[in-house]
Amino acid sequence: MRSSKEIRQEAWRIVMDTTWPRKILCNAFVLYLILIGAAIAISAIYCSAGIQTWESFREAQQAARRAGLEMTVPSIAEACRMTCASLCSSFIQQILQGILAFGIATTLVKCIRNDSANWFSAAFSGFKRPFGLLGLTLLIALKMFLWALLFIIPGIIAAIRYTFAMYVKAEDPEMGASDCIRRSCELMDGRKMKYVMFCLSYIGWAILTIAPIFIAFAVCQPDSKAEEVSMAMGVTMGVCFVVTFLMMIFTSIYMAIGSAVFYRDAKAELYGPRDNHMV
Fold this sequence. Notes:
Elements: H1 4-17, H2 20-49, H3 54-66, H4 76-113, H5 130-150, H6 152-161, H7 165-171, H8 177-188, H9 192-200, H10 203-219, H11 227-271
C-alpha cells in the first residue's frame, strides 16, 4: 500500500486539478442545510403545538432561575410526554445524519472513481433507504459504546475499524449493516496504525487552519479604547475568522478526499484492483 505522502499527493491533485472539491462542497452544503432545516422545523412544530422536550424544559428551567423564579417539577405524565417528544426528535435527527453521511460517502466514492454522472443526485441517494442507514449508524454507535465500556483505547480502536463502513454501504447499498461493518474491519485489519499516521500527517494543515485565530488574539489586544483602534481590531478579527472558516472547509475536503483514496487503496490491496461499480 502507498505511503501517506503518496496518498496525500493524489488527493492534492484531485483538489487542485478537478472540479470534485466544488461538487463535494455543494453536496455537503445542501445536506447540512436539510439537517439544520429539519431541526428548526421540528423545534417550530413543537413550540406551536406546545410540546416540550427535555432539552427545551432545561432551557426554560435555566431561564427561570436567571429570573429568580422556580419551575415546578414535571409530573410523571409530563415527563413521559417530554421523553417521547425527545426520542421522536432524536430519531428523526439520527435518520437525517445517516442520510448526510451516506450522501457525502457516495459523493466521495464517485470522486475517487472520477464518475461525474448524477453527482448531485448522489447527495440524496440516502433518502431511498433511510432505515437501513439508521440501522448502520445505530449499530456502529452501539458497538463503539460497548467497546468504550472496556476502556477509552478499545473505543478509539473500534472507531477506526468502522471508519469505512459508510463507504462500503455507498458502493453496495443493499449490503446489511453487519456486513458493512465486517467489511470495514477487514479493510482496516493491519492498516489501523497506518490510517492513524495518515490522519496525523494532516497536522500541519490543522495548525495552519487555526493559526489566523491565534494571530488575531495575539495582535488584537484591547489596550486602547480609541474608536479607530477598536474598528481596526474588529475588522482584523473578522478577516481572521473568515480565513479560518475557509481554511477549515478546504482542509476538511482535502482530508475527506485523502481518506477516500486510502479506502480505495486498502480495498485494492485486499481484494485486488477489480472495478466494483456502484449499484
